[in-house]
Each structure stands twice: as structure tokens, then as C-alpha cells.
Write a structure and sequence with these properties.
It contains 19 helices and 14 strands. The protein is an alpha+beta fold. The chain is extended, with a radius of gyration of 36 Å.
Length: 653
């Protein structure tokens, strides 16, 4: 009987999964403690009754997150001049995906979650999933918690060096499974067997592990019985190397039935893992290396314990606990009344004066604790010096006796340390860029509308698979907004000085100089600079937006709105788009609609331009009359040229 390769590899993948769970168990429990303390719910100290949770640890983590937070963009670059436009289009495509508000977009939000996971566990891992649905390109960007990762313990920080990698807790419902069978992705026989297996446990997400409950219980949430309303099944996704190839396997957790088993090359032509990530403290052999939380946790716990011990001691001293001799004080209620009242007498039996009243009462004294404030300050300074999470970074005001030079040096040291922290993040996003490009190559069946920046500002264009052909290898760079702003700010003064020296030079390109002044010194965006330097037409941002919206509506089969404020720039922008993409089949199909829309606006444009010319002429005449009255000069008649219209666009034959 022939051995089913899917069943054989699934048994191997199950053992790999179990090996990973065993190897990371203790690490997962440590990470659970960090999550619990971040949610201000530390482990209770049994010997100390006063146990107030202080937000020390969460404050340190949030300070690191705020310092590392940054808007990041991925850009493609060419190594051959012939590839310049292809690189621009690929960059516009990835920008559209990352900025989209649809599911799978808002990448900067996902990057923040990735950084937070890395602070707790030491590694931040994401998965990029491109696919084609109904002929349109779609993608998903997922952030995988450390508890769900499946990895080779000795694989090191570079995911591509692992013999296997994957993730647990992939939940699929019945509709998703049936859709996958119809689309040819999932094995029908395996799916039928999974669906027909009756189990009450499949109606819920199942019992969460203790380690995952660290996310919910401290916040008062019981997530053990997360009812989703329909049967769902837990799957494991794992990619492993076998006989020199990488194989993708998606199998059900309880039955071990594989619903999709295929070479990774059928999913991604590059055969790269869909996973990308970084380690905060890179280790060439250990993937689960240490994290920032490993350093912050002991300091935070120590500060919390010191405060609680001091507060407990203060409570004991203030409670004034005492014992009394019951033979001397027959009525102890009188002792209590004398303590809280005034001029109260307490009867006492001194046995005919042979015993003192002080001998009948004993006071329990708690020893004084000194140095708590100093020790807490030392711990905070120590963690600040070691990790950069000091009072300056947290926004605290500096002492008046602290010199400006010292503060400046501290700021520089913090900047260097944070730059070192953020470097692995940016390097991991280069790997994301390669996976996005591969996704375009594999799944971009129909052209994708993109906004491409040109001399006249942003214009609508189309990203097609043929555009992604590079003559040579391409470059990927990750641009940090904060670093770019800092770099530009530092260079601003020197650029202003240089431009001042070159003001009267005949060897300087005037337009390029004006671009530098507007963008780098004035702070205008590229689109605003293009509009500012466009002397061929007078327009507004509103006109640019309406023109782009009209192009998009026509391409999407919708009826665009009539623009009663249309000008020549408005029509020229639409004509430029059609002329540039006249060879595209979708544009050819809509040429008649573009022509009809342009004809509809011709008279509107002529009327608006004539009105503007009349307004200008009236203002000029009024200004001339005013000048003539003041100087006595004769009035010179004004000649207003007619605004030329572009020739009518002819449809392609």
C-alpha cells in the first residue's frame, strides 16, 4: 500500500510542533508573567498584606513603545535607470496596501503591535498573505504572538535559516472550509471528515492555556468560553524542508488531517517563508533570545515590593497594636472608648497598688525602615542608565541644578540607544518588501489603480504585472519618518546657507532650487510643491481631488459627478491620464466615457475661464485707474489673451 505523502509529513510536522511547545514552555510562562504585570496585576506577596500594584513595569514598557513608535514606509529602488518607473510603480503599490483602511491595511498599527510583542518575548514576527479573489489582488498582514509561534529552537534569529516554521491557533469555520474546497485549495475528503466529526468542543474556541489567560484575567475578562456562534476548528500551519524543497501543510489539530499539502513554490514562486520578523537581542543560534522585559521585570518587581513593604510597615505603626491584662482591665470596651474619646476614665485593678497600670498594657512596635526612597531612586536610575528608560525619556522635568550640557549628552545617548533598538525592526521590513513584491508577481492578475507622483503632483495610474519586470536586481529601503525629519532638520540650516550663496549663480537649475526651498525649508509635501511650481494653470487642491476622483469613478464603472468649478487644469489632468494609458485595455474600453465626460465640461471650463479673465481685467483696470489718479499718468488699455484649450482627444481605433 502506497504511503500518502500528506499523512507522512503531517506526522513529522506534529512531532515538530510538539517539540517546539516543549522547548518554549518555560519561556512562555515567563512571558505570561510579563503580560500579567503589564496589566498591573503582579503575583501576590503572601507575607505582605499591603499589596498595591504600581504601574512601574507598564510605564517602562509604554515609554519604550512611545520611543520606538514611528511611521515607516517601504520603497523600491532601481539599480538600472531603465527600471526607474517600475520601482516607482511598485512603491506606489505597496504604499496603497500599507495605507489602506480596509482589512489587511493600516500597517503602522500592525507594526506597533509587533514592537510590543518583541518587548515582551524578544521576537516580533509577522506573516504576509497575498491572494487573488474574484480577479482582484488582496493581502493580509498578521502579527503572530510568541505563544502561537512554531519554530526550530536552534534556528537563530534569521527565520530563513529554520528547517521549519509556522503558527498555531489558525481557526477556520465551516464556510471557510467549503469555500476552500470549491476554490481547489483544500482536500475535499479531509474537509468532509473534519466537518462530519461531531464534538461539542468544536462549538467554541476551546479552553485557553494559562499562559494566554495572562492577557485576559488581569483585566477581569473570562475568555475561556469564547462562543463564536458556529462550528470552528483549530488548525496548525507549518512549512518544513524535505528533500531539498519547502512544503506547506495546513492540518487540523485534533484529528491531524491535512487539508492543504503542497510545495511552497505553488503558493509563492520565490519560495520564501511568508513569515518575517526580528529579535531585539539577536542570537545566531537561539531564536527565543532575551527581551527588554527580561531586563525591566526585576527592577519593576523590586520597586513594587519595596514600596509595599514600606507601606505595610507604615500601616502597622499607625494601627498601634497593643495587648492588655484581662485581670487588670475587666472591661476592655472602656479602653477603646478612652482611646477615641476625651476625658474618659478606665477602671483598673492594681491589686491594692502592687502593680502599675503600664504593666497591664503592652504595645507592639514595628521597627523603622529607612532608605526606601533612596533605594527606589537608585533602581530607577540604574534601569535608566542601562536601557534608556530614564526620567528624561519619560518627560519628567529636569532639576534646576542639572547643566544643559549634561542633559544634551543624555539626549544624544538616548537617541543612539533607540536607533540601535529600531534597526532590527527596519531590517525585518526589508524582508516584508520582498514578500510584497513576490505577492504582486504571483497574484496581481488585473491592474491595480495606484497614485503615482509626477511633475504635476499625484496622478492615478495602473500597476500591472508587466510593470514589475526589472532589467536588473532592485533595492528595498525602509524610510523612518522620525529619522527623516531629524535628518532634514539638522541639514536645514546648512541648506539655507548654501542656497543663499547660490542665489545669483547662473549654473543652478532654478526649478530644482525652488523645489528644495519649498520642500526642505518650507516643509511642503511633494504634491504641494508640484502644484506650487506648475505655472501652466491655476488650480486648487479641490480641483486636483475631483479630477482624480472622476478618473477613478470612470475606471470603476461609476458615473462621475459634474464639476461646475472645472478649469483647464481639471480637463488636462484627465486627458493626461487617458493619453498615458491608451494602450491599456481597461482604458480603451472606457475611452468613449472619458470623451463624453470631457465634452460635457468644455463649455463649463470656457465659461469659468472667461469669468476669471473678466475678473482679472476689472481688477487690473481698477488698479490702473487708481495709479493714474495718484500719478496723473494716462490710462493704458489692457489686452487679455484667450486661454488656449487642448485639442480634442481622439479615441483609439
Amino acid at each position: 500500500m502506497a504511503i500518502n505523502p500528506a499523512e507522512e509529513r503531517t506526522r513529522v510536522n506534529q512531532r515538530q510542533f510538539e517539540s517546539c511547545v516543549t522547548s518554549k514552555r518555560r519561556r512562555v510562562r515567563k512571558v505570561a508573567k510579563y503580560r500579567q504585570l503589564y496589566n498591573v496585576n503582579p503575583e501576590r506577596q503572601l507575607r505582605v498584606r499591603y499589596d498595591a500594584p504600581l504601574p512601574i513595569f507598564s510605564g517602562m514598557v509604554d515609554t519604550l513603545l512611545a520611543s520606538l513608535d514611528d511611521n515607516i514606509s517601504i520603497k523600491f529602488g532601481e539599480t538600472d535607470p531603465a527600471d526607474w518607473r517600475a520601482a516607482q510603480k511598485a512603491t506606489a503599490g505597496i504604499q496603497k496596501l500599507s495605507d489602506s483602511q480596509m482589512p489587511g491595511g493600516q500597517w503602522n498599527k500592525m507594526f506597533r503591535a509587533m514592537r510590543k510583542e518583541a518587548i515582551f518575548s524578544g521576537v516580533g514576527v509577522g506573516e504576509y498573505i497575498p491572494y487573488n479573489l474574484d480577479g482582484k489582488f488582496h493581502s493580509q498582514l498578521l502579527i503572530i504572538p510568541f505563544e502561537h509561534l512554531i519554530f526550530q529552537a536552534r534556528g537563530g534569529f534569521n527565520i530563513e535559516n529554520h528547517n521549519y516554521f509556522g503558527r498555531d491557533n489558525v481557526w477556520l469555520n465551516k464556510a471557510s472550509l467549503i469555500r476552500g474546497v470549491k476554490g481547489g485549495l483544500y482536500d475535499r475528503k479531509a474537509v468532509d471528515e473534519i466537518i462530519n466529526t461531531k464534538s461539542e468542543g468544536f462549538q467554541t474556541r476551546g479552553m485557553l492555556d494559562f499562559d494566554e489567560e495572562a492577557r485576559f484575567k488581569p483585566l477581569g475578562i473570562d475568555a475561556n468560553d469564547d462562543i463564536v456562534g458556529e462550528p470552528t476548528w483549530r488548525f496548525i500551519e507549518i512549512i518544513s524542508e524535505y528533500e531539498g524543497k519547502r512544503w506547506y501543510n495546513l492540518f487540523e489539530y485534533n484529528l491531524g488531517k491535512s487539508i492543504r499539502f503542497c510545495p511552497l513554490s505553488e503558493i509563492s514562486s520565490s519560495e520564501l517563508y511568508p513569515y518575517f520578523g526580528f529579535a531585539t537581542h539577536e542570537d545566531s543560534e537561539n531564536f527565543a533570545s532575551k527581551s527588554y522585559a527580561d531586563d525591566l521585570y526585576p527592577h519593576a518587581i523590586s520597586i513594587n515590593d519595596l514600596f509595599n513593604e514600606d507601606a505595610e510597615n507604615r500601616r502597622l505603626k499607625n494601627s498601634n497594636a497593643r495587648a492588655y491584662d484581662k485581670d487588670m482591665f475587666i472591661n476592655p470596651q472602656k479602653l477603646y472608648e478612652a482611646q477615641i474619646g476625651r476625658s474618659k476614665l478606665v477602671p483598673a485593678d492594681t491589686q491594692n497598688g502592687t502593680r502599675r497600670i503600664s504593666e497591664g498594657i503592652y504595645e507592639f512596635k514595628s521597627p523603622d525602615i529607612s532608605g526606601t526612597v533612596e533605594l527606589i531612586s537608585w533602581l530607577k536610575n540604574e534601569v535608566g542608565n542601562s536601557l534608556g528608560v530614564n526620567d528624561l525619556l519619560q518627560g519628567a522635568s529636569q532639576p534646576t541644578d542639572k547643566k544643559v550640557g549634561v542633559t544634551y549628552v543624555e539626549q544624544n545617548n538616548i537617541g543612539k540607544r533607540l536607533s540601535f533598538f529600531s534597526q532590527p525592526i527596519q531590517e525585518s521590513l526589508v524582508q516584508l518588501g520582498y514578500r510584497v513584491f513576490g505577492g504582486f508577481v504571483d497574484y496581481l492578475k488585473e491592474p491595480m489603480p495606484i497614485k503615482l507622483f509626477g511633475e504635476a503632483g499625484y496622478q492615478w495610474d495602473l500597476l500591472k504585472r508587466i510593470d514589475l519586470h526589472f532589467e536588473r536586481d532592485f533595492e528595498i529601503t525602509v524610510v523612518s519618518q522620525s529619522q527623516s525629519n531629524k535628518k532634514n532638520e539638522l541639514a536645514k540650516a546648512s541648506r539655507e546657507k548654501a542656497l543663499g550663496l547660490l542665489a545669483n549663480s547662473q549654473n543652478v537649475n532654478g526649478r530644482v532650487r525652488d523645489e528644495f526651498i519649498a520642500r526642505d525649508i518650507g516643509g511642503y509635501s511633494d504634491a504641494e510643491v508640484a502644484m506650487l511650481l506648475d505655472t501652466t494653470a491655476e488650480t486648487t487642491k479641490d480641483s486636483v481631488s475631483i479630477a482624480s476622483e472622476a478618473v477613478q469613478d470612470i475606471m470603476m464603472g461609476r458615473v462621475p459627478k459634474t464639476n461646475y468649478q472645472a478649469d483647464t487644469y481639471f480637463l488636462n489632468r484627465i486627458i493626461d491620464f487617458v493619453e498615458t494609458h491608451l494602450e491599456d485595455k481597461n482604458v480603451k474600453k472606457n475611452v468613449q466615457k472619458f470623451l463624453a465626460y470631457i465634452d460635457k465640461h468644455k463649455q463649463i471650463v470656457i465659461g469659468n475661464m472667461r469669468r476669471k479673465q473678466q475678473e482679472k481685467q476689472m481688477l487690473a483696470e481698477a488698479e490702473q485707474e487708481n495709479t493714474a489718479e495718484n500719478t496723473g499718468s494716462p490710462k493704458i488699455p489692457q489686452i487679455t489673451p484667450q486661454q488656449p484649450m487642448r485639442p480634442q482627444l481622439q479615441p483609439a481605433q
